[in-house]
Input
Amino acid sequence: MPDTSSSADSELRTREFLSAMTRSLDIAPRFASKVEFAGDGELASIFVVSDFAAAAVGTAAVAAAEFIDATLGVEAAVRVSRPLASLWFGSSLRPDGWALPPVWDPIAGNYKGKDGWIRLHTNAPHHREAALAVLGADADKAAVSRAVADWEIEALESAVVEKKGCAAAMRSIQAWARHPQGQSVSLEPLIAMRATPDRSSSDLSPTLQRPLAGVRVLDLTRVLAGPVATRFLAGLGAEVLRVDPPDWDEPGIVPDVTLGKRCTRLDLREPGNRAVFEDLLKDADVLVHGYRSDALDRLGLDAERRRALRPGLIDVALNAYGWSGPWRSRRGFDSLVQMSAGIAEEGMKTLGKDQPTPLPVQANDHATGYLMAAAALRALTERARTGRGFEARASLARTAQLLVGGPRRDGSGNLGAPSEEHWSQRLEATAFGPAHRLKSPVTIDDRPLHWDRPAARLGSSPPAW
Output
């Protein structure tokens, strides 16, 4: 496979992705045309992941520039660092004197069945229990491998999902294109946006230093796209309050994604807690949620109820496998989508590997997060003009389709671990210990993103603005 990693080719690919992303959001082309991409470096993949990363970060920054233009009358210049954008798609944190816990549960991973490969996602205890119950295996990787070997992969996938677990059989790009869910996702827009009939007056106080000052963002998201979206909004000055259930944790990721946020806990199944959440929603400008498509409906918090509580609400929702088709309510994560949509199989086949070969980072998660942030900014721009609320929908599977539809590389890469020049020299006093944070991947009007709060522990703040 020819390598197309020259700077000129990379710039062209990045701008093609940027055009597709901003066009889906109906951002005026003049804003996208002024973005400057700087620096070189490629993550090792047959897919053009670094171009994709730069374009996604650029899209969120372009949406911020449009918001600044609409609210302050200033045309802000946007500059994106290609290497930093790629590095932020990994981990943005380097602990100083302590270590991050492992991201993956010991049982999570790829296993070979009778007729192919399957991935089990077991980071959440109830997902691990579901997979082990189906397999009749102990929580031991060797025992799980032996049990999986007796299954046909699609039968095991269905059984785990039916047990409310998370699994994905490895399919080829061609098989995914023929699959009913792949066909449904292919017909969906990259980002679906629509104005809602309800209105509210905007009471914002933007400045060039903090464009989203006064904007309140209620964050009902977990690993990983939603937290990336709200982290970007916090970097522009929004007040972000993350809400988790009482028993949820993701220790290997929380220090990375809670930057700039306050974090609280509420059990939305409990009427008293749900009433507290509704009070929070009444004063929110933006709600970002990553629950499965019917989960909030079952809690009595469907879209109509949310708009009634907060007219003019900007409601940004995430789903793993799309918003139509038979899998629209299926639990999913980026690592699973990469198996389903053909990414892992394509990497394995092209590079001659003997096991699934996914992307070097969770690129669908991160790119979708920046697209969600862009959607929120785009909606804030329109609400400032018209007072109208907005709904936006994104999915990991649809984002993956954009990447898979792009060109290919030879699988090589020259962007390894971050060097000293990529790290901020200022220590961040996170709740977990001191750490260095990667420098901002973007500047807007020559100002880098800036977060007012260090990374916090889940549940460390009261449920109040």
User: Anything to note?
Assistant: The first helix runs from residue 7 to 24. DSSP finds 18 helices and 17 strands in the chain. The mean pLDDT is 96. The two ends are 53 Å apart (CA to CA).
